[in-house]
Amino acid sequence: MKRILVLGDSLSEGFGLTPNQAYPALLTEKLRAAGLNFEIINASASGGTTNGGLVRLPAHLKRKIDIFILELGINDAFRGVPIDEIRSNLQAIIDKVKARNPGVRIVICGMQLPNYNADNYVSAFAKMFADLAAKNHAALVPYLLEAVGGDPSLNLPDGIHPNAAGQRVLAENVWRVLEPISRQVAAVSSRAERGISQSEAGSR
Fold first, then answer.
1. What span, in angstroms and rounded, lies between the C-alpha atoms of 77 and 31?
2. What is the model's pTM?
């Protein structure tokens, strides 16, 4: 079974909901329905920051990871952490995952700050995710909260965290990017297994 690791914050943890309502669990259902044999490990934590992700990551690198979904940074931005520091932490997380899993496929979930005033910090934060994706040959979910952010019907009363219906939209946003990647990973794995079987048969 192939393995997907999700490292995120409350958006990926499913704040205020049951674990099976959060989008990582919904992705598991989509993978199963597509006939793709993947296990999703949701290593997300409410309040998670990029620095906290660096601390939590090593415990999840003991097993092989085939696809890595990274969803961190918004809590740093709410605290006014410098963009360069957020970017550096995210890059360090990616580097650690790649070091242990050289062939890993990476998906970066982009985020945006509420557009209170489109100053340099707001625009630099939004651009950072695309830059990281390009630098690391990673896939990009342009904006995780696309069609959810700011819609009262898709968020909890706090207006910040998606409700169960909102999480279903998040799952669709990620699935558009994840589906082709997971199919590619499964196909490569299948070809490799066939090659091993054929070489074993030939050596008999």
1. 32
2. 0.93
Buried b or exposed e, range 123-143, using 16+ CB within 10 angstroms: ebbbebbeebbeebebbbbbb
**In Å, what is the CA distance from 80 to each residue of 76, 108, 159, 160?**
6, 21, 20, 18
194 pLDDT more than 90: no
Examine the pLDDT at 76 and tell me if it is beyond 90: yes
Of 157, 9, 174, 14, give the one whose Cα is nearest residue 76.
9
Of the listed 9, 44, 76, 161, which one is catalytic? 161
- Catalytic site residue from 10, 12, 44, 182: 10
Mean pLDDT of the chain: 93
Is-catalytic flag, 10? Answer: yes
pLDDT digits (tens, 9 = 90+) for 51-75: 999 999 999 999 999 999 999 999 9
What is the number of other CB atoms lying within 10 angstroms of the CB of residue 11? 27
CA-to-CA distance for 50 and 90, rounded, in angstroms?
6
- Residue 189 has a pLDDT of 75
Number of residues written out for the chain: 204
153 close to 142: Cβ distance less than 8 angstroms = no
Catalytic residue among 137, 153, 158, 203: 158
